[in-house]
Amino acid sequence: MITAGPLIELAGEQWRGVSDGARHHGCDLVCFVGSELDHPDPHKRRANTVYDLISPNRIDALVVWTTRVGQLIGSEGMQEYVKQYAPMPIVSVETPLAQWPTILMDNRNGMKQAVDHLIEVHGKRRIAFIRGPQTHAGAQERFWGYADSLRNHGIAFDPALVSMPGSLIWEPNRATDTVRRMLSRVLEPPDAIAAANDDYATGAVSALEELGFRTPEEIAVVGYDNHTNVRMNDLTTVRAPFRQMGFRAVELAVALVKGEPTRHRQTMPTELVVRRSCGCLPSGLGDHAPAHDRLTINESATASTVADHLRDSLGQASTALPDGWAEQLVVELMAAGRGEVEGAEFLKLLAEYIRWSARAGCEPAQWWPPLFDLHRFVTARISDATLINDLWLRVQLLLGDAFATDARFKYLSHERHDQTVREAGQRLIASRDVDELTNALAEELPRLGIPGCHVMAYDTPGTARTLVRYEHDEVKPPPTTSFPTINLTPYPFRRTTPFSALVAPLYTDEDHLGYVIFEEGPQPGWIYEAVQQQLSSALRSIRLMQELKDARARLEERVGETEAQLRHAQKMEAIGRLTGGIAHDFNNILTVVNGNSEMLLRRTLQDDPRRTAIEDIKHAGERAANLTRQLLAFTRQQVLHPESLDLRDNLTKVHSMLRTLVGENIELQMHLPDGVAQVWADAGQVEQILFNLAVNSRDAMPAGGTLRIEIANRPLRGDDTGRIVGVRPGQYVVMRVQDTGSGMAPDVQAQVFEPYFTTKPVGKGTGLGLSTVFGIVQQSGGQIELISAPGEGTTVEVYLPVPIELNGTPEAPYARRTTTHQGVGTVLLVEDDAQVRVMTRRTLETAGYAVIEAGDGQEALQLATAHRSTIDLVLTDVVMPKMGGPELVRLLRSTGAAPAVIYVSGYTTDEVLDDEVLITKPYVESDLLERVRQVLAR
Fold it and tell me: Helices (DSSP H) in 320-464: which residue ranges?
């Protein structure tokens, strides 16, 4: 089967229909889940490589769900696309494909039934229609069904009440805009709206609510498809027979394989499902609430006929009810209608049967059609309908409660599944190698109900190798050799019964990683796709880790362990020097860009059309400045998205995932008091900090122990120390992660935040966990401290800044201030980069300072001697040719001159700067002038 994900709602019904059909006919099913062909999003198009795995080597026949895969290319595009699979037998669903048999749904009659219902039951005469995408064949047929119903009832067709065909994809917002425009153009609004799809119907309801119309009291709405989400929103719709179509498609595919004759085209009937949006359930208006289609109970109908309808409507669930239950309901309602017994007895009996059937998997909607039949049957056979109509109202209210209870149950069930998937995903994403990934899958897949999972990684073009082989609820050793991808696996699937599997691609924005084969377990298709995405992230991380390990292994293989360590140290030193040099030169350039952009902004009026472009330049310069601070560790190469976070809520949400992560032998304590301030940070990165620290603590307690996590308000003063230099004083929230593990020696503590440093055995750790934490905290404007001793456990304190309120909106606490003061004094400016020197001089002179400039330390010494009595401040770069800043200052002070000093540097230095002020590049005008003012004011 070929279809497009995600396998939720209708796509899930389609897949389950094909799966049921395959199982019924004793066939194996392999469902290839990609995306729409020619999708405009390149990331989604990458998923379509999974269709290249389809081959006669493993596949005997193909079911193509054309409206899912080809809705963007139309029927002609699909006909051209499936030629690549010839001569494999093909069955098309929803769109005819050349000579292959096709399964269609009765779109035309389905929409006609819905509009007939509005006209005949609710008396609607002015009905609008929202048309679907031009490329969707079924959408056009639904429009014809709408027109048929109007014509059959003698209602004139009004073009003003019909929208133009839609775009390529069903978008609720488009329907919302369409209804707004339609109602603004017509003098009299419609009394009902029919939409070609439930998404459009939902958009129409939103527009009506926005414009002040009540649904269904003023304008009724019906849709088409019976989406899962609309089943909880009271939308009357047409149930598309996707499950039955999938089942029938398998029957045709089996016939093609056997060479048996088949019908070229088959059409499956639809079913009208009435809910509140048309004016029905639970209206309480007796014959004002029919079931799907028009129900008729003729005079010859018997109690046995009605009882059979009750049993048939409930299907398999009826076997869970007592023998004779249907006949008993008929007798009880008849007696209540005649006044022979209290209606409460019938309601009690009905409520009990509804509960029993629900336990057997019956939905409340299945009760509605036969109960309506029963109501009509009894009403036609009693003289006074007063009692029965009153009882009928109470029946509808009872069903309404059943609908609400069913919706709550489904919501809670979904939430439980979602929580389980999130916990499993965190385990998978945290995997550092294939062994950890395999163990995580072996533990988490049973919780998800997935009986088998086969993870394949692409090797050379057209080949792959098996990373994980999990089947029959156990891990099996995978083959070590590569195999052709068109074989799907290098080993046969041996099952005693037919199996159903999903094949999904594993990929990132940059690369195709492989694919995963899930053996079918739980029915919700989104579970498989969530695990697929988590596996993609895990494989990407494992690949990066493996590349690092391979590089290190090759190095150690060549020169031996001792020399490898030496080379590693030399390499890290060289990288540090190279990074510092690059950052220095790049920061010089950015200082000019950022400084001039801020100066231009200060001189530009708010309504100046050039201001946006200047702000863009300033923003780009700030982003580039952030990049230079991230060069020391590749794990800090991501852009953060900070916001105002409630740290207590965030940590509470991940409690269960942490519980799973640290293991059962470790006691997890969390102290999260009320009243702790919010922090300014990226929510995802805060979780990353916590999980990395938790993993380190877990590894430090192999025999078990206690992991305690707590948060508290904690201000940082200017004299507070930590591992990060230059943290601004202010209000912070501290997150402490404390374990009772083995602790660390002082020499280990000194290196613990360095990239690649690890105390674990070779192959057991990468040394990137704590350096990642350090980088995230540093980027977030926070502080980090580590307290530990051998045998006494370890405590890591992470300080995150508290946001400030500006006009009621939380903002970053370290937003730059605008400096407007006028300075007085003479500044000796020493800078070897000419552009930086020119920009800085312009900034200082504009602020009122007199400036003497020099290109290096020697020139500055000569100028200082000539202007000895007039220099108030020396503003000097640290590293320069001929003579650096610190040496210049020492020589000046040796002559008796004692001006104030500010150092400027683009990277860290080993120079001793005493207690002088240091400004890091790139800096902007406001920061520079503020520091100059502060130093001269001392």
Answer: 325-337, 343-359, 368-379, 386-429, 434-448
